[in-house]
Design goal:
six-stranded mixed β-sheet; single chain; elongated
């Protein structure tokens, strides 16, 4: 039986209240009427609790996970992800040089500093970028260099490389890149540097990738179970079905305040409409970006195929040229043999002519002898 979340979160407005609010404001009415029917129904379902709020929407995510006013939430989540107790102390300035064309695919991109001095870059991607490993390595290296410059400037001559703390790159995919799709059922990927000889080197760059789409599918196949607190967080981020939301807050009541924050936001129809409008716009941009990426990848694959075909054709041309050369040598040899044969035939003809003349002379001599 499907539940309506308003029965559990009384702060949620009724459909009549939300529609009345939209009708009475011409700007809200105009925006609402510009949406497709399906989009209008989805918006009303979110605001009225018929369907859960999508926590990966930019406005919702930042409402509940912003470390500036709720650091304990991000601290709890990251402690589970990194498998060590950490505490978020502050948000660091983000890198202004990040490519602008990536912004529409990022739900959140923040850099935080831990109590022990470690740094983490947390990203939530709607669509996983191409070449995720290379991309993460570049931003991790940039973040490490920023830490080095900052510490060296602060400590001056007292600076030591011992002061460098671990830099974590943590990426949550709403839709995972194809590299991760090749490992169905595996949604947690941790990358660390190790030396093949066993020598212990503290290389301060670590990566964690969380595939929410793969987790969601795995959870569905396992009977919608939530096995631990990390899975509870991933359920919070990836599931918006009312039944799953209720199951989550029943097993982990500490998530109820997070939903209450979101549904308090939903009471402000104008603000939540801005969140929803931005999401629709970004979905369109994402679709275009994904299509471009796929087309570029397909074009690159076709270029590789064409390159292989050209190489095969060139190799065939070389073989044909070699065969033509050998054929020409054979033809020249045959022509020489034919010339020799013609010469032999001429000599044989000459010999036959001389033989005929000699035979005639012998016959004439024999006739003379017989007459005598």
């Amino acid at each position: 039986m499907a539940h309506n979340l308003k029965d559990y979160f009384p702060v949620i407005r009724t459909r009549e209240e939300v529609e009345k609010c939209i009708r009475e404001d011409k700007h809200l009415r105009k925006t609402f009427n510009e949406w497709e029917l399906q989009e209008r129904e989805e918006f009303l379902d979110i605001c009225t609790g018929v369907h859960g709020a999508k926590m990966l929407y930019d406005g919702f995510f930042k409402e509940v996970m912003n470390p500036e006013y709720a650091p304990e939430r991000l601290s709890d989540f990251l402690s589970l992800v990194l498998k060590k107790q950490i505490r978020v102390m502050k948000v660091l300035p983000n890198d202004s040089s990040r490519l602008t064309d990536e912004s529409s695919l990022l739900i959140m991109d923040i850099v935080v500093e831990f109590e022990d001095g470690g740094i983490a870059n947390i990203e939530v991607q709607k669509l996983g970028y191409l070449f995720p490993g290379q991309r993460s390595a570049c931003y991790s290296a940039d973040l490490l260099l920023r830490q080095y410059k900052r510490l060296r400037n602060e400590k001056k001559k007292k600076f030591s490389y011992r002061d460098i703390q671990t830099v974590y790159t943590i990426v949550l995919f709403e839709k995972s890149p194809k590299e991760f799709q090749e490992k169905p059922g595996l949604y947690y990927h941790r990358v660390e540097h190790k030396v093949n000889t066993g020598v212990k080197l503290d290389i301060p760059q670590k990566f964690v990738y969380l595939s929410l789409d793969i987790f969601k599918k795995k959870q569905h196949n396992e009977g919608e179970k939530i096995h631990n607190k990390l899975e509870a967080w991933l359920t919070f981020f990836s599931r918006d079905e009312p039944d799953m939301i209720l199951k989550l807050i029943e097993q982990y009541p500490e998530f109820r305040p997070l939903y209450e924050d979101v549904y308090e936001l939903c009471r402000n129809v104008e603000e939540v409409m801005q969140v929803f409008s931005k999401e629709l716009l970004e979905m369109d941009r994402n679709t275009v970006k994904l299509m471009i990426d796929e087309m570029e990848e397909e074009l690159q694959e076709k270029k590789e195929i064409l390159k292989e075909q050209v190489q095969r054709i060139e190799e065939q041309d070389q073989r044909i040229e070699e065969q033509d050369r050998k054929m020409e040598e054979k033809n020249q040899k045959i022509a020489k043999q034919e010339q020799q044969m013609l010469k032999l035939n001429a000599e044989l003809k000459q010999s036959k002519s001389e033989m005929a003349g000699l035979m005639q002379r012998i016959a004439e001599l024999e006739k003379i002898l017989m007459e005598k």
